[in-house]
Design goal:
CATH class of the largest domain: Alpha Beta
Low-confidence stretches: 1-47
Oligomer: single chain
Shape: globular
CATH superfamily of the largest domain: von Willebrand factor, type A domain
CATH architecture of the largest domain: 3-Layer(aba) Sandwich
Number of strands: 8
Radius of gyration: 23 Å
Length: about 400
C-alpha cells in the first residue's frame, strides 16, 4: 500500500477554504455584507489570483451627444491594446482582460439605471471590437456612480495585490447624477484597490466643476478631458502595406474548431475589415496586436488550443475538416507545422512594427502637437503611469 504523504501546500489551501466558508456562514447568519458576495469565492480567488493580471473596464456614455466618443473608441482600440501588450513584469507579458459597459442610453431600462454590461472581462479582443461597432447612441440619464458601482460588484476582478485593476469612465454630464453617491462608490473602489480614471468629454474646467476630477482623485486615478468629436489622426508609414499582407498570411494559420469556430473565424475577418476601414495605419496597429502574446484564441483556434493542451485532439468532438482522416500523430504534426508558420509571421510583424514605431516617433517629433486630447492618448498615459505603480515595465 502506498503511504499517505502530507502536502503542506494542500493542507494550507484546504484550511483557508474551510475558514472562508465558515466566515461566510457566520456573515450570512448575522446579516453582514461581505465582499465575498461581490468578488470570487475564496477557492476561486486562490485559483485565479495573478500578479500578471491587467484588467480594464471601459464605461462609455452612449447618450445622444456621444457619437464622437464611440467613434474614437472604435478607431483607437488597437493602438490602446498595442500599448497594453507592451507591458510586462519580470519579462512575462500581462494576462490582459477588457470589459465593456454602456450607460446613459434610453434604450436601456430605467430600472437598471440606464446601465448595461456589454461584455464581462474577456481576453477576446475581437469580441470587444465587435461590441464597440455594435454600440448606438440615444438620449438618456447618465448615472456615473451607478455604472461604476455595477462594474465593481459584477465583474470578476482578480484579487492579487499586484494585479492591476482599472476603470475608465467617459462622459459629459454631472458626475453626481443619480441616487447613488459617487463619493461612496469611489471610496468602495479604492478600498478594493480598483483605480477609477475619469475622462470628461468637454472643457477641463467644466469637468472639474461638475466633479469628474473629484471622482478620480478619491481613488488616486487620472482625470483628463478630451474633445470627443476630434477625428483620429493617423500617421501612415511605408510599412503599412507590408503589415497588411502579413496580417492576411497570419489569418491563414488559424484552424477553426468547435461549435463557435466558424463564426469566430468570421468575426476575426470582420474586425480586420472594420480596422482597415479607418486607415492602413489602424490596420497596422491591429496586425501588431495580433502578433502579441495577448492575442490568444484557444476557445476556437486549434493551434492556440493545442499549444495550451495537446490533449485537445482527444477531447474535442468538433475537429475541422483538415484533420479528418488523419491519425492523432499526423494531426499533431500538421498543427505544429502551422504553429511554426504562425510564429514566423508574428516575428516578422513585430520586427516591422518596431521600424514603423520609430518612423511614427520621428514624424510626431517633427509635427508635435501640444496636449493631445483624444481617447487613446489619455488612456495610454494613465495606463503607463499606473502600470509602473504595480511593478510592470513598459517597452519603449
Amino acid at each position: 500500500m502506498k503511504a499517505f504523504k502530507f502536502s503542506p501546500t494542500k493542507g494550507v489551501l484546504s484550511l483557508l477554504i474551510a475558514t472562508a466558508f465558515l466566515i461566510q456562514v457566520y456573515a450570512s447568519a448575522h446579516g453582514i455584507t461581505s465582499l465575498l458576495t461581490h468578488f470570487k469565492t475564496q477557492e476561486n480567488q486562490m485559483a485565479s489570483s495573478n500578479a500578471q493580471s491587467i484588467q480594464v473596464a471601459l464605461l462609455l456614455d452612449t447618450s445622444n451627444s456621444m457619437d464622437g466618443l464611440i467613434e474614437q473608441a472604435k478607431s483607437q482600440l488597437w493602438n490602446i491594446l498595442v500599448s497594453l501588450s507592451k507591458t510586462h513584469k519580470n519579462g512575462t507579458p500581462p494576462n490582459l482582460e477588457i470589459a465593456l459597459y454602456e450607460y446613459g442610453n434610453d434604450n436601456i431600462a430605467a430600472l437598471k439605471g440606464h446601465v448595461r454590461q456589454v461584455l464581462p472581462f474577456t481576453t477576446d479582443m475581437d469580441a470587444i471590437s465587435a461590441a464597440l461597432f455594435a454600440l448606438t447612441t440615444n438620449g438618456g440619464n447618465e448615472y456615473c456612480a451607478q455604472v461604476i458601482d455595477h462594474s465593481i460588484k459584477n465583474l470578476d476582478w482578480d484579487t492579487h495585490s499586484k494585479a492591476m485593476r482599472l476603470i475608465f469612465i467617459a462622459g459629459n454630464e454631472n458626475f453626481n447624477q443619480g441616487t447613488l453617491a459617487y463619493q461612496q462608490v469611489c471610496s468602495f473602489a479604492k478600498k478594493n484597490d480598483i483605480v477609477v480614471n475619469t475622462i470628461f468629454c468637454g472643457l477641463c474646467e467644466e469637468g472639474i466643476r461638475i466633479l469628474w476630477k473629484d471622482g478620480a482623485d478619491i481613488t488616486g486615478g487620472n482625470y483628463s478631458c478630451i474633445n470627443q468629436n476630434e477625428a483620429t489622426a493617423y500617421i501612415e508609414t511605408p510599412y503599412d502595406d507590408k503589415l497588411s499582407t502579413l496580417n492576411t498570411q497570419l489569418n491563414d494559420t488559424y484552424i477553426a474548431y468547435g461549435k463557435m469556430g466558424t463564426s469566430k473565424l468570421q468575426q476575426q475577418r470582420t474586425q480586420d475589415q472594420n480596422a482597415s476601414g479607418y486607415s492602413k495605419a489602424n490596420m497596422a496597429d491591429r496586425a501588431r496586436f495580433k502578433a502579441s502574446a495577448n492575442y490568444m484564441n484557444a476557445s476556437w483556434d486549434l493551434v492556440d488550443a493545442y499549444k495550451q493542451d495537446s490533449a485537445i485532439l482527444k477531447t474535442s468532438s468538433y475537429l475541422p475538416e483538415e484533420l479528418k482522416g488523419k491519425s492523432e500523430t499526423e494531426a499533431a504534426e500538421y498543427i505544429e507545422q502551422i504553429g511554426q508558420q504562425r510564429s514566423s509571421i508574428q516575428k516578422e510583424i513585430k520586427e516591422l512594427s518596431e521600424q514603423r514605431a520609430q518612423y511614427i516617433q520621428k514624424e510626431r517629433a517633427a509635427n508635435a502637437k501640444k496636449g493631445e486630447t483624444d481617447l487613446q492618448s489619455t488612456v495610454i498615459k494613465a495606463i503607463e503611469k499606473q502600470a509602473k505603480q504595480k511593478g510592470f515595465e513598459i517597452e519603449e
